Amino acid sequence: MHSGTTLTQFIIEEQRRTAGATGDFTSLLNDVVIACKAISNAVNKGALLGVMGSLESENVQGETQKKLDVITNEIMIGANEWAGHLAGMASEEMDDCYAIPSQYPLGKYLLVFDPLDGSSNVDVNISVGTIFSILKAPVAGRAATTEDFLQPGVQQVCAGYAIYGSSTMLVLTFGHGTNGFTLDRDIGEFVLTHPSMKIPTETKEFAINASNQRFWEKPVQRYVDECLAGKTGPRGKDFNMRWVASMVAEVHRRQAAPAVRSQPDGFPGRAGWRCRHHRPRAHPRPDARRPAPARAGDPWLQD
Prior knowledge:
- The strands form three sheets. This protein has a seven-stranded mixed sheet, with helices on both faces. It has a three-stranded parallel sheet with strand order 11-10-12, covered by helices on one side. The protein has a two-stranded antiparallel sheet with strand order 1-2.
- It has two domains: 7-196, Fructose-1,6-Bisphosphatase, subunit A, domain 1 (Fructose-1,6-Bisphosphatase, Chain A, domain 1, 2-Layer Sandwich), CATH 3.30.540; 205-294, no CATH class.
- By secondary structure, the chain is of the alpha/beta class.
- Helix 2 packs antiparallel against helix 3 (67-80).
- The protein has helices at 7-16, 24-45, 67-80, 218-228, 247-256, and strands at 54-58, 64-66, 86-91, 109-117, 128-136, 156-164, 168-173, 178-184, 189-197, 205-208, 240-242, 260-262.
- The radius of gyration is 19 Å and the shape is globular.
- The protein has five helices and twelve strands.
């Protein structure tokens, strides 16, 4: 028998503390959780279900899609399109935002997700995950447009990720603290195991895709060079470097072991950079706009 607070209990208690709560958000988050459980099962079965390997298609990032990318995308859509909580969805696996089918009512929230982050690792049994964010729709009950999704990170209602590894965990925040829940497969429930997760402001470890070093901007290059210089450099201590090509796995490691995780995408022809740094009080997946290490509480961290 499990002991501790279940995710269902945790969400309901949060709802009680929110003035004017109608239960719509609680129901939506429950649908997201159900999808994560189904994805965990698909990832866990792997080759037994014949779902390993790549397709000939690419996603919006130009990455080759895995069979599980498409399957998990369908799981997320199927679990969330029908209940009437959403005005639209957007997925990394789709070129355009997903319109809620006409037979279902439209709601007041938007759901953004990457159904299987790090899917290049599924064939070699490395941890992968699901990333999601819930936003308020600018106009409730109206079909969402692409522009509706382009909101500052601080306007997120909820953000989180599930990680599928030696155990399945769900880490999420409502904007005031981050909590981790582990799936107890005996009862089919997530149980609170990592309350009030924080990343210390000091680190001795960082993760970066060094294969793109020739594309890095100078501030990123300088920071990494200082870390690699170790005790003989300006930072005066040795750093370990990791890179597993799964953002969820990297971020979760940073939640457990203080570090900086950065993915500057400096490819020719690809607009902009995705340079992510994670610090306390940020949503689990904030997108930073500048390459210097983030500081806790910086207002730009989620914008």
